[in-house]
Structure formats: C-alpha cells, structure tokens
Automatic annotation (TrEMBL):
<dbReference type="GO" id="GO:0071111">
    <property type="term" value="F:cyclic-guanylate-specific phosphodiesterase activity"/>
</dbReference>
<dbReference type="Pfam" id="PF00563">
    <property type="entry name" value="EAL"/>
</dbReference>
<dbReference type="InterPro" id="IPR018247">
    <property type="entry name" value="EF_Hand_1_Ca_BS"/>
</dbReference>
<feature type="transmembrane region" description="Helical">
    <location>
        <begin position="12"/>
        <end position="32"/>
    </location>
</feature>
<feature type="domain" description="GGDEF">
    <location>
        <begin position="244"/>
        <end position="375"/>
    </location>
</feature>
<dbReference type="InterPro" id="IPR050706">
    <property type="entry name" value="Cyclic-di-GMP_PDE-like"/>
</dbReference>
<dbReference type="InterPro" id="IPR029787">
    <property type="entry name" value="Nucleotide_cyclase"/>
</dbReference>
<keyword id="KW-0812">Transmembrane</keyword>
<feature type="domain" description="EAL">
    <location>
        <begin position="388"/>
        <end position="628"/>
    </location>
</feature>
<keyword id="KW-1133">Transmembrane helix</keyword>
<feature type="transmembrane region" description="Helical">
    <location>
        <begin position="125"/>
        <end position="150"/>
    </location>
</feature>
<dbReference type="InterPro" id="IPR000160">
    <property type="entry name" value="GGDEF_dom"/>
</dbReference>
<dbReference type="InterPro" id="IPR043128">
    <property type="entry name" value="Rev_trsase/Diguanyl_cyclase"/>
</dbReference>
<keyword id="KW-0472">Membrane</keyword>
<protein>
    <submittedName>
        <fullName>EAL domain, c-di-GMP-specific phosphodiesterase class I (Or its enzymatically inactive variant)</fullName>
    </submittedName>
</protein>
<dbReference type="InterPro" id="IPR001633">
    <property type="entry name" value="EAL_dom"/>
</dbReference>
<dbReference type="Pfam" id="PF00990">
    <property type="entry name" value="GGDEF"/>
</dbReference>
Length: 628
C-alpha cells in the first residue's frame, strides 16, 4: 500500500501527463482552425483583387489591409519589388506550433504580392488558460483523491487484518470449516484479495497441521499417546498453566523390565498401555488433573488444588485398580506410587526426588502400594533417606530369611544336537509374603552394596533345590552380577561351593552381561577360567550392545553368547539385523561358541532365527516362566 506522499507524487505525475495531453490536443485543434482561417483569408484576398478599380491606389489598399486584419506576419510588395508593408510580431513556442506556415498570394489586378501569416493571440491565450485550469483542477482532484484513497486503503487493510486474525484464530483453535464455508464469511468484496486470503489461509492451515504433527511427534509418547516428559516439564514450570498448589504423584511400573525379558516387548507395551488406561480412569474424577509418561516405566500425575490428604483417596483407588489388573494378568505386581505436595515455592527437581523416595518406600510394603513423602529433610543426606533405609532393611531380611522363589524359562534348541539350558529367574518377597519388584530389588541391592550377598543367596538356593529335587539331568542358567565377579572373596566362596557339588556344578551355566565382562578383562578371564575348572559353563548375555571384538571372546572362551533383544526383535522383517546375526553366528561357530536368541515373541521370528542357524531360542513364544 502507498503512503500519502507516494500516492500524491504518483497522482501528480498523472496530472502532468493529463495536462500535457490536453495542451497538445488543444494546440492541434487551434492549429487546424488557424490553418483553415488562413486558407479562407487567401481566398478572400483573391476575391478582393477581382473587384479592384482601375483608379484604386494599390498602396492605400496595402495600408488598409494591414490595419483591418491581425497578422502575425505580413509583407506586401508591388511589381517593382518595392516593399509597401513589412510587419512581423515576436514568436514563441505556442505560436510556432499553432500558427500555419506563411502563405503567398499574387494580386494581378492590383499589382501586389502578399505574403502573410494570420495571428491568433486569443486562441493561444485561451489554450494557455485551459491548460492552467486543467492542471489546477487536476492537482486539487488528486489531493482529494489521495486523501480518500488512503482512507479507503486503511479501511481495507483493517478489514484484511481483522479477517486474517479471525481466520487464524479459527484455524488455531481447531474449529476451521471447509474452505468454501470459510470463504462465505469474508467481509472483503475484492475477488482477487479474497482469493489471495483464501490461499494464505490454506497455507497457514497446512503449516499449522504440519506443526501439530511435529509437535505430536515431539511431545506425545507413541505407546500410550500421553504427553511426555518434555511436555510435563513445560507444563509444570509454566505457572499460568497449572494450579498454585496440588499433589504430584509418580507411578513406576516396576515389572516392565521383567515383562520385557520374560514375555517379550509386545507384552511390555500392552502392560504399559493398560497402566496408562488405569491412570486415565483414576484421574477422571479430578478436575484439571493430567497424566504424563516421563520415561519407559514412570508416569507423572498432577492433581491441581488437591491436598495431600484428599490425594490419598486417589492413591487407594489406583492401588485397587492395579490389584485388579494384577489378578487378571500373569504379573507379580503392577506399579508403585510416590506422592508429594507441591506449591509455587518448591522446585520441580526437589519434588521429583521426594516422589522417587516415596516410591522406594512403597516398594518395600505391600504389592502396588503407595507412599506420601512429607519429610523434606531427607534431601539433605540422600544416603539416609527413608527409601534407602527401608530397602536396606528389606534386603537384609530377604537374605537372612531366604525369602526367595525360583522360576525357570526354557531355552529351546533349534536342532536336537544343540546343547542348551533353562534360565533360572529369582523372585523375592517381604515379610508379608508379597512379591517385591524384581528390577527395583536388584537395583537397590546394587546401590546399597548388597548385590554380592544376593548373588550368593541365588546360587546357594539353586544348588540346594536342584539337589533336593534330583534334577541333575538338566542344565540351568544362573545370572550373576559384574560386581560379584570382581569380588575376590566371592570368587573364593563360589569355587569352593561348586567343587563341593561337582555334579551339580557341571549342570550350571553362569550368565553375565557383555558390559560386565568388559569392565575388567583380567578379572573376567580369571572368573571364566575358574568356572571352566569346576566344570560349569559361561554365557555372555545382551551380546552386541558393546560390539566387543571376537578376539576378546577368543581369549575368554565363553560357551554361549545370547544376542541382545534389539537384534532379535522383528528379525523376520529387519534385513540389516539378519545380515548382522548371520555374520555373528558364523564367527561364533568358528570359535565353537553357541549362539542363543532371547525375546522371541512370534512364530515368524523363530523361523527367521532358525534359518540363520541360531542354536537356541528363548522368549514368551517358546515358553513362559514356571516354578522350578
């Protein structure tokens, strides 16, 4: 849109052009009229010459002719070339352009030669006045037109602005109609602008739709369709979006790792979706409550304008729903919840630490329990937190009272000639005979330096039960931590214990992660050599994550490697993993190492692994865990 000065200059140029056109047209008209008058005057002179008397004085005629007519140029000579009249006015641009060329007429009866050019001073003045008037009126008109045009443009711009604001608000609010319906609401009566606005709206709607898709990818967790940790932090730290006070609840799906390992990742996703749906139903009675998925196993629930006392009803309801789901599924527990009160004075990091401590306390109580953490002083010394204290007491109680239950999950050989085994899985219970969350139990045992004692308890229990149940005809895999194989006292105890029951020791396969072996290669080699001396075997599990060189395994000489589930999952569709596994199997067999696959969840995966010459398969499709 033009500014007022720009519009004024533009219109002034048009006015000058129009005035020039008027001047040229007027000059042409006046010139044509002057030419016609000059021709008529020539004829008049010839007619006067025919009526001349013999006695008439030519000189007097010439003088009278000069006086009676207005000439711009007049020259009269007689037959003797004597100049009787010589008259000429000053010339300027208009007269040179308007007046016709001079004409010459011979008057034989009077003996005169007349050369003349008629003047037209009135026509020139009239033309000048007309041009001045036209230019003046044009200037006045363009000033007024520019003023009204600017006003019109501003009104139009205002309408366009309002139209765009309204349409943007409609599009952003997600209530946009079909394009044709929106166009009918336009207040602008200019078709071209309406067309451009429609194109602009469609473009903006497309961009907003694309942005919403990207935002969904960035902030929506794909399994549960809940908002993720980034959205939770964004929502919580925006004081305008949340309440001034309320309760924050962190719910941890304690069995996710166990479900993934035993039942497979598809069942793990179903487990997470069920927990998410339970939480959606639980918060439906609380106005403004929201639930987020923070990570693979943790959910965050915000209950705005709710006191901690009122939130306990929510926690009890959640525990009841978790208990119902647990009874309907093959799970030892579902989830544990930590509650903490929040207001504007408490930072998010502190609240999450308190809620995490609450979860640790809840996990040492009954199944699917909750705990409201109100003591903030525990943050001053994390080693003395309630959660750590409770877990330490619980782990000591489990070890002292040997509250352990053993399950086994079969590894099925792909060929009758392949030697495989069944993996032993340990479960622990508290004094009320409630199963403790397995993943949390091992994590806290590692954190509190109790993992070596836990490994001794598992190994001792396995050897004892195999002997009592006379199961020496089978092979059993026992998991052992990296901390234990780096403990000299543990290795001495283990060697003596296995030598005491050499027959059972020959039926044991100790599983340790690839990462655990890499921490101290010398210690790992000593451990494997000792295991082989007593007749037991070694499996390197979760193989492929660290991509350790095969020279490392050639020196350590394990008996089995168990491929990480990330390689076996959907192996029937993943060509890259098929190629990698075929290469690993070929290299392992050259070193006389058997290759196993875990987390086999479908018949298609099993068939694909068999075609790759895997020695054994383990997973939910092969067999569920069962009591030893």
């Amino acid at each position: 849109m033009y500014t007022y000065s720009q519009l004024l200059l533009r219109n002034l140029f048009f006015a000058l052009s129009f005035s020039a056109c008027v001047a040229i047209a007027g000059a042409i008209i006046v010139a044509l009229q002057a030419d016609e008058r000059q021709d008529q005057h020539r004829k008049t002179l010839l007619a006067l010459d025919k009526t001349a008397n013999v006695n008439e004085n030519s000189k007097d005629f010439a003088q009278q002719l000069a006086v009676l007519n207005k000439y711009h140029l007049l020259t009269i000579t007689d037959n003797s070339d004597t100049t009787l009249v010589n008259h000429q006015q000053n010339s300027h641009i208009l007269t040179d352009f308007i007046l016709p060329a001079s004409s010459e007429v011979q008057l034989p009866n009077r003996g005169l030669v007349v050369r003349f050019q008629l003047g037209d001073q009135q026509g020139v003045i009239l033309l000048r006045n007309i041009v001045i008037a036209v230019f003046t009126l044009s200037c006045l008109f363009i000033i007024l037109a520019a003023f009204f045009s600017i006003r019109r443009y501003r009104r139009l711009a205002g309408k366009i602005n309002q139209q765009i604001k309204r349409d943007l608000a409609t599009i952003i609010s997600g209530q946009e109609q079909a394009t044709g319906d929106i166009d009918n609401d336009n207040e602008i009566d200019l078709p071209e602008i309406q067309q451009h606005l429609t194109e602009l709206k469609n473009l903006i709607a497309q961009k907003i739709s694309t942005t919403q898709v990207l935002e969904q990818d960035a902030y929506i967790e794909p399994v549960t369709k809940l908002e993720n940790r980034h959205r939770f932090i964004q929502f919580f730290e925006n004081a305008d979006s949340r309440a001034d006070f309320g309760v924050l609840a962190i719910t941890r799906c304690s069995e996710l790792q166990t479900v993934n390992q035993i039942h497979g990742y598809h069942e793990g996703d179903n487990y997470i979706r069920q927990v998410a749906e339970i939480m959606r139903v639980a918060i439906s009675r609380y106005k403004g409550a929201k639930v987020f998925r923070l990570n693979s196993s943790d959910f965050a629930t915000l209950l705005p304008n709710v006191t901690l006392k009122s939130a306990k009803n929510f926690a009890n309801d959640l525990t009841g729903r978790f208990n119902e789901y647990q009874q309907a599924s093959d799970l030892d527990s579902v989830a544990y919840t930590g509650l903490v009160y929040f207001d504007n004075d408490k930072p998010l990091g502190e609240l999450l630490a308190l809620a995490d401590t609450g979860i640790s306390v809840a996990q040492t109580q009954q199944v699917n329990a909750w705990y409201a953490q109100t003591d903030t002083s525990i943050l001053e010394n994390s080693s003395s937190s309630y959660g750590n204290q409770n877990w330490r007491q619980e782990i000591d109680s489990v070890i002292e009272n040997q509250r352990i239950k053993l399950l086994i999950q079969t590894i099925k050989p792909t060929s009758p000639n392949n030697r495989v085994y069944s993996e032993v899985l340990a479960r622990f219970s508290n004094s009320n005979d409630d199963i403790l969350p397995t993943a949390s139990f091992f994590a806290m045992a590692e954190k509190l330096d109790k993992i070596v004692a836990v490994d001794r308890l598992i190994i001792e229990t396995v050897i004892t039960q195999v002997a009592q149940k006379n199961m020496q005809d089978q092979f059993f895999g026992v998991n052992i931590s990296a901390r234990s194989i780096n403990d000299g006292h543990f290795l001495i105890w283990l060697e003596r214990r296995l030598l005491r029951d050499a027959t059972i020791a020959s039926k044991l396969v100790f599983e340790i992660t690839e990462y655990g072996l890499q921490q101290n290669i010398k210690t790992s080699k000593n451990f494997i050599d000792m295991i082989h001396r007593v007749g037991a075997r070694i499996t390197v599990e979760r193989f492929g994550v660290g991509l350790t060189s095969f020279k490392f395994f050639r020196d350590l000489k394990p008996d089995f490697i168990k491929m990480d589930s990330s390689y076996t999952r959907d192996i029937d569709e993943d060509k890259n993993n098929q190629y990698f596994l075929r290469l690993m199997v070929d290299l392992a067999h050259r070193l006389s190492i058997s290759v196993l696959a875990e987390s086999v969840e479908s018949q298609e995966e099993k068939f694909a692994l068999e075609r790759l010459f895997i020695d054994g398969c383990q997973g939910f499709y092969i067999g569920k865990p069962k009591s030893l």
